[in-house]
Amino acid sequence: MNAIDPQEPGGPEVLKLVERLVPTPEAGEVLVRVAAIGVNRPEVMQRKGMYPPPPGASSILGMEFSGTIVAVGDGVDAEQIGQPVCALVTAGAYAEYAVAPFGQCLPVPQALTMVEAAAIPETLFTVWTNLFERAYATEGDTVLVHGGTSGIGTMAIALCNLFDVGVIVTAGSDEKCARALDLGADHAINYRTDDFVERVRAITGGAGVQAVLDMVGGDYLPRNLQCLADDGRHVSIAVQGGMTATIPIFEIMRRRLTLTGSTLRPRDTQFKTLVAEELAATVWPHVEAGRLKPVIDKVFPFAAAAAAHERMEAGDHVGKIVLEVVAA
Question: What is the reported pTM?
Fold first, then answer.
C-alpha cells in the first residue's frame, strides 16, 4: 500500500508516498480501506520531530480516518466487513489501509460524506472529554474557547450549540471572528486587537465564564483565570504558546478554581472505547440526523499531504483540513 512514513524529521517536503505492507488486524481490531484522513496539528509537530509517537505505535503519521472495513481480527464479528466507519487511532492513518481498535470506530451514517467523517473523531473525542467531561460544561453555562476557527474550536462551537452552552471564542483576525459568529459562536474576540480578559468581563457582566478550553498555555493561563467565574474550571489541551506559567495560587484558593488538562493520544484503548460509547449514545444521534457536521476548510489529494501541512502551518484555515485517498 501507499503510506506517508517519513524516516527523519523535516519540513513538509518529507511527506512523500512510500510503499508499506498492509497491516494485519490483531484481536479486537479491524482493517479499513481508507477513504479520507483528517489532518491535525500534532502530526505537524511529529513531522518536525517535536512529538514522537507513543511507544509501540506505528511511525506512519495520522490519528483519524474514514473508510470501509475489509477484514477483522479475533473477537470482532465478521458481519462488520463492508461497514463504513470513522476511527480515532494513535497512529497509522496516512495510508491506503489502516488498523483501528473496533471500540474506537463509529459508524458513518448517510448524513456524512467520507471526507466529513474523517474530520470528526479527533476533535470530537478531544472536545467531549475535555470541555464536557473534565470541565463539566452543561446547559446554561458559558465557556471561553481559544482558537475558535481551528478544528477544535469549530467542533466546540457546534457541540455548545447542540447542548445549549454559551460559547465565547477568540481568533486572530476580524475575518475569522466573523466566520466563528457565522458558525454559531455567541461572541468572537480578535485577540490581536482586543484584550480578551476585558471583553469576557464585559460580555458576562463581570461574572466570568464557567469554563475555559485552552490550547495556548504560557502567559494565557493567568489571563484565562481572570476570565473564570467563581468555581470555574480551566482545561489545558495544548501548549502552543509556552509550557510554563506563573499563576496566583491564593486566587485559585479564594475563588475555588479548578485547573486540569489532558492529552488524548497516549490514553489506552479501554479509555477511548468508553469515550466512543458515550459519543455513540449522546452525540452520534445528532450526527445521524444531520445536525452535527465538521467544518471542512480544504480537501487535498493524499499525495499532496505536504501542501495540506503547509496550509495548516500558515494558520489561515477555518475548520478541518482533509486528505482524500484514492485506493489502488
Answer: 0.96
